[in-house]
Amino acid sequence: MAASGPVPALFPDVTMALLSFALRRLAVSLPSLLLILIGVFALLQLAPGDTVDALLAQMGGGDPVQIQQLRTFYGLDAPAAVQLGRYLWRLVQFDLGFSAIYGKPVAAVIAERLSVTLLLMVASLWFAAVGGVVLGIIAARKVHRWQDAVISTVGLLFYATPAFWLGLMGVVVFAIKLGWLPAGGFEEIGSGKTGLLRALDITHHLVLPTLTLGLIFLSIYLRIMRASMLEVSTLDFVRTARAKGVPDGAIVTRHILRNALLPLVTLVGLHAGTMLGGAVVVESVFTLPGLGRLAYESVIQRDLNTLLGIVFISAVLVIAVNFVVDLLYARLDPRIRVKGH
Amino acid sequence: MAALKRYFRSPAAVLGLTLLVAVVALALSADLLFPRNPLGLAGRPLQWPLDNPRFWLGTDTAGRDIAAQIFHGARMSLLIGVVATSIAIVLGILVGAVSGYYGGVVDEVLMRVTDAFQTLPNFLLLLLLIAVFGSRIETVVIAIGVVSWPAPARLTRAEFLSLRNREFVEAGRLSGLGDLRLIFGEILPNALPPVIVYASVVMATSILLESALAFLNLSDPNVPSWGNLVGQGRSVLRTEWYVCAVPGLAILLTVLAVSLVGQGLNDALNPRLDEQ
């Protein structure tokens, strides 16, 4: 049936097996999520000062009675274990608590910022994956020739470049010297643009951040892609295809690429967290109002509730990405499904 | 010897070693060439490189000699890299060895903890640790080590899993060696090479992590760090962009050196047919 070629089979029973495989992987990640929340909660207990202290610092002090009332209001007078229990219980009800600094629910604060970070991450990931795959293929096809040397060297350079520095130098060249791109921000404030014009404006603002965050991952992907292209192209089934007279282009796209993509897909999952971490730095360089910047600001302002919320959302995001990666992996590599049964 | 020969046959590996030796030379000569405090006032602020023969890399916003900070910063970066990497590798080996050797419930628990660490973005955990424990340089280095151990742990565990039932281990077990002797005396020496090669990756990331923290003003401001300098130069990026450019280049070259040496070691120790 589907054994004759690399066409993915989509029969109901296979889909079910795929789904149960992915669900099982998802179930394994739940203990990790719980561990993270307990660990981070315990960690934050060690932090000097709590939300009320931070709030008081902002207001410039307060009288002891008021302070006590605030502590009671935020539930900070209970023992740590009770606080943790309450926190987890509220979390089950999708309540992330209240941010004293921003004066609104943490969920609302995060929701405002999440879309910027997601947009940045998805754009960077696409750029890195497509660029990495294309350059990796070129390098592997011209292995040990000048094209390979140039691509590999540039890849190595970007791998070693600190993201914040790459961003700053990008600002110097493209924003300050050439004036092609804005130096920061998510969109032109107060321009009143809507619809397509606004989308274009945002795209214009996101070019530099996307390149900054994406180039580092592109350099990793291109190296992996090159290596795995070279490895797969020596395998027997490729030789068979060649002997059968399959045209060169078809061998690359249908036989080699599909198999060479597997390690790349794994890496994308592993990098989901790294990319979020990179977003903290990149959003700070380009003053983007995203989740990463929020994390940084919460550290500075000791807004522990928001910080805990960001930790939770980030972990969920990483788990979600890995879930998608598992599905993709199983689709690309039919052998996984056999193991999944 | 064959491995050494293979190493020196690769131009990239030789370039990496040369760069690394150069960075070490910067670090070693820092006190000799710039005996004064690199964070002290040296002259008029924001002099361009080569404008004043005394400051061939210029001065920063606070009138400090950039060259002095680059030399002393090399020492800091290498120190941070080596110490944080050692912490991460030792922790990783301990967790990985115990996990891979004993298996079962111990393995399950340790791997869930490792999962948890890998699910939480590294840099976010680092921010949390800094927020809680402060940003003295010792704390920063330990924190970087603590967020970097999961990958070496997984690597060690995989090696242990494949080695623990080999004949030489069985022989040791039959001759009455205890678990500790088997783990550290028999299996670990054989499991070590890939972990040591991986240490170069950890070191490169450690240096990048510290510089990112320093750039965000979250590392120790009282040590000469390249990242600190980039962070300070940001305010004058529009006109005096060299304040950011110079230390960033230093970070780039150091990380490049460490990665190239690691890659070279890897290729020299595991010669692959397709690279011939």
TrEMBL record, chain A:
GO CC terms: plasma membrane
ABC transmembrane type-1 domain boundaries: 114-329
Entry's Gene Ontology BP terms: transmembrane transport
CDD domains, per the entry: TM_PBP2
Subcellular locations according to the entry: Cell membrane
Membrane topology: Multi-pass membrane protein
Presence of the UniProt keyword Cell inner membrane in the record: no
Transmembrane segments: 26-47, 114-138, 150-176, 202-222, 261-286, 306-329
SUPFAM superfamilies registered for this protein in UniProt: MetI-like (SSF161098)
Keywords: Cell membrane, Membrane, Transmembrane, Transmembrane helix, Transport
Main location: membrane
Pfam families linked to this entry: BPD_transp_1
Domain of life assignment: Bacteria
PANTHER family on file: ABC TRANSPORTER PERMEASE PROTEIN, DIPEPTIDE TRANSPORT SYSTEM PERMEASE PROTEIN DPPB-RELATED
Similarity comment: Belongs to the binding-protein-dependent transport system permease family.
Record-given protein name: Peptide/nickel transport system permease protein
Organism: Novispirillum itersonii
Automatic annotation (TrEMBL), chain B:
Protein transport is among the record's keywords: yes
Gene Ontology cellular-component terms listed: plasma membrane
Keyword presence, Transmembrane: yes
Family annotation (PROSITE patterns): ABC_TM1
Record domain ABC transmembrane type-1: where: 74-262
Main localization category: membrane
Subcellular localization: Cell membrane
GO biological process: peptide transport; protein transport; transmembrane transport
Family: Belongs to the binding-protein-dependent transport system permease family.
Record's protein name: Peptide/nickel transport system permease protein
Organism listed in the record: Novispirillum itersonii (Aquaspirillum itersonii)
